[in-house]
Write a structure and sequence with these properties.
heterodimer; A: 161 residues; Rossmann fold; five-stranded parallel sheet; 47% helix; 19% strand; globular; B: 160 residues; alpha/beta; two-stranded parallel sheet
């Protein structure tokens, strides 16, 4: 990844070719792995003179989160506010390198559905994801989201480790 | 580096990789990994001949693909490897210090997914560099997306 980042940085002259990615979507969960993918997406967007959209999807409470007292609305509002602040921070951080960055905040029960519908909505021509790093049984349990996105994405996907 | 399976979609994938290589003024290595056939499948000499012919045909197809990419003005070489695809691709990517690995994903049907025949997910976990999985926009079938509630009455864009 370091080498590619170097390659992205060292290219200063723009060839007469049409950039392949003019609208890049980078979903983030604010983890370290996500941050690495975001940094890569920012460099790529700058190199391609494209528009970068950061996306955060806050999982909505499901029936499993329901208690005898009902859903804890205060907690949900707090989580939403925290996520929105984190997203604003991520945008500010990205804008230090490249200005054409915006953000979308979504909440929903299905992470993949929200990512895919946003990709459609903005007509993304590249989706930048990070790997979760799960192997073995954890991959079987938690790796299905990436596979679902891979199968239904309307555009190429860049997976950054 | 672009990994192909020499199917009908491979030319489109190689073309896409060539565009990226041209943009970044990079060189391209097209790799195909020939899966080794277990010894028990060598029923007789005819089987061996058929398999050898198949191998030669695949090698020729890979060279033709590399030549097509070269005609687009990209410095391109081909690598015909033998073994387990995910492992061989990762090793070669490390050896040549690949900056980016490009591959394509066909939509695996249920049984293919169960038996792990689509190699794209393992490659993206083992590759030493970022992996770009090529999907042309027409590959996302509108009917499927409507079923998932993703397309909300929008017209599908043309293929890139």
């Amino acid at each position: 990844m370091k080498e590619t980042a170097h390659l992205l940085e060292k290219q200063t002259e723009t060839p007469s070719l049409q950039p392949l990615f003019s609208r890049i979507l980078a979903p983030t969960d604010f983890s370290n792995r996500s941050q690495a993918a975001l940094d890569y997406a920012v460099k790529l967007a700058r190199r391609m003179h494209g528009q970068l959209t950061l996306l955060h999807v806050l999982p909505e409470p499901s029936a499993f989160d329901y208690t005898m007292n009902g859903f804890a609305h205060g907690e949900w509002d707090q989580a939403k506010e925290e996520a929105e602040n984190n997203l604003a921070d991520a945008v500010s951080h990205a804008k230090r390198t490249f200005l054409e960055v915006d953000a979308k905040f979504r909440s929903g029960p299905d992470l993949c559905l929200e990512i895919l519908s946003t990709a459609h909505e903005i007509s993304a021509d590249l989706l930048v994801l990070s790997t979760h790093g799960y192997t073995g049984w954890k991959h079987l349990l938690f790796g299905s989201d990436a596979v679902k996105i891979l199968e239904h994405a309307p555009c190429p996907i860049l997976v950054v480790r | 580096m672009v990994a192909v399976n020499l199917s009908d979609h491979s030319e489109a994938t190689a073309r896409y990789a060539a565009e990226i290589a041209l943009f970044f003024q990079a060189s391209l290595t097209i790799v195909y990994v020939y899966r080794t056939v277990p010894f028990c499948e060598y029923a007789n000499e005819t089987t061996l001949t058929v398999l050898e012919d198949q191998r030669r045909d695949l090698q020729r197809m890979l060279n033709v693909l590399a030549q097509k990419v070269q005609k687009r003005g990209v410095i391109c070489e081909s690598a015909f490897l033998v073994g387990e695809p995910t492992e061989q691709i990762s090793i070669l990517a490390r050896d040549i210090g690949a900056d980016l690995l490009i591959t394509a994903s066909h939509q695996p049907v249920f049984l293919e997914r169960i038996f792990n025949l689509d190699k794209t997910p393992p490659i993206k976990h083992q590759a030493p560099c970022p992996v770009l999985i090529y999907r042309d926009k027409s590959a996302a079938e509108p009917s499927t997306l409507h079923n998932f509630g993703i397309v909300r009455g929008t017209k599908q864009t043309e293929m890139m």
